[in-house]
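yo

u said u wanted the structure for the complex thing, so here. seqs first:
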Amino acid sequence: MIIQDRMEIVEHKQIARAIFELTLRGKLTGEITSPGQFVHVRVSDSLDPLLRRPISIAKVDRDKQEITLLYRADGHGTGVLSKRITGDTVDVLGPLGNGFPIEATEAGETAYLIGGGIGVPPLYELSRQLTAKGVKCVHILGFESEDVVFYQEQFESLGDTHIATVDGTEGTKGFVTHVMDNLPTDFATFYTCGPMPMLKAVQQAYADKKGYVSFEERMGCGIGACFACVCETKDQSERSYVKICSDGPVFEAGVVSI
Amino acid sequence: MSRLAMELPGLQLKNPIMPASGCFGFGKEFGGLYDLSQLGAIMIKATTEETRYGNPTPRVAETASGMLNAIGLQNPGLEKVMAEELPWLERYDVPIIANVAGSETADYVAVAKAISTAPNVHALELNISCPNVKCGGIQFGTDPDTARELTAAVKAVSSVPVYVKLSPNVTSIVDMAKAVEAGGADGITMINTLIGMRLDAKTGRPIIANRTGGLSGPAVKPVAIRMVAEVSQATNLPIIGMGGVTNAQDVVDFLSVGASAVAVGTANFVDPFVCPNIINSLEEKLDELGVDHISELIGRSHRL
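structre next:
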């Protein structure tokens, strides 16, 4: 169920250039049903910035009632959020959207988790849940440069992790597709989240595979009421559009037109 | 009698608070969060004769204490709204105000005639002020003669009272209000959004794919208050005021300048519980102001 919760900031720190790790505690944690869901965060109680910020959930700790958000402070709203300190409370709405299906991959099978930039965070909780289930996870993570790479060690602790950077300062030079070119394709499922060109490339490269894609779009309400984040579907006969916030953000590969 | 109850043409309101059209869909999303029967009324999303997909994305951009939107009247069309959306809302004890949109008079008339027969539709809101569609909408809302004629045409076929939603993007909103009054309108809803533009810092181009969008949110409230003040003194029509309402004080302000009820728009996106929160805080506000019934606040600004 979607609830509004004043969550307490347990920890808040910068972990890479402009990338922040925010741990929040509250009962909203208990409502989360799948990795890849997101929360809608009001960065302050003032009217400016007005709208909430959709941020994916990178880690869920049910015992401690804590969630971890990883976000990039590159705008006004996330800039304000980055200055909030431990002990503060934040107005959080969630969990929102439908996440990645972990049931799509059986124990013993291999899953490729492919992320780009600030699309990487939800793959962490996904990998935690898949590996706990006995799925072998291979992570292929793309970043701009070495100084914005985050959670490399955390991903490595869960499975093979390949890093690509556009400028080559860390891992393979280039995009995640360059890493994918050199990996076997005997995996069962792919899960991906990142910028649109990356999603397109991944979906094309693995067109014959079962896959799940998490999309991002400018949102208003986050609950499906405002029609800001609609995307056209590929098969127009069934339905002509989907709302990223409430029908997604995760869709089976091929459903959304990109 | 409840201290918050209000009666307007076609509408017996438990309280004068309702979500504004376009900010509440057809209620389903909010129905999952709270009991919609708490609301005074619901203004459903604009309905056109045919299905409309709306504008390309990005459709929204945030601004200082506000936002721009150019959704483009996306809706499933009259047939589906009549067959699915309105019947779904019948589970709630709440009057529906159906927002009617079109490109030409015949469209408006067709939608108004049909949708006004739905059992839970107690009033129409004639949308002559959407700034985000290429034809129709705004043209009807900027020329007084056209607005009067359209109002009269819709009035002639509607089974329920007709409110006309005015655009702030005009030289004289009073002239528009008088025109729709002359056309037989039963009430006025105001204001729709103000046309604006926000640029991408890197490219210098508009962020919204439609280039321009309608500005809403707390940023527009002073404009809305001024316009309601003017119109309420120039016509005898009841006004449902809106523009940047986020709390009970905003409601008091709109009533003070002459509105009889208040719609909440953008704030639903910020806090989906804003309408029940405002309703629950209104009585305390009346106590604070030493007022027995909320209707005593209507037009007090003009009485001073």
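The mean pLDDT of chain B is 95. Residues 96 and 121 of chain B are 5 Å apart (CA to CA).
cya
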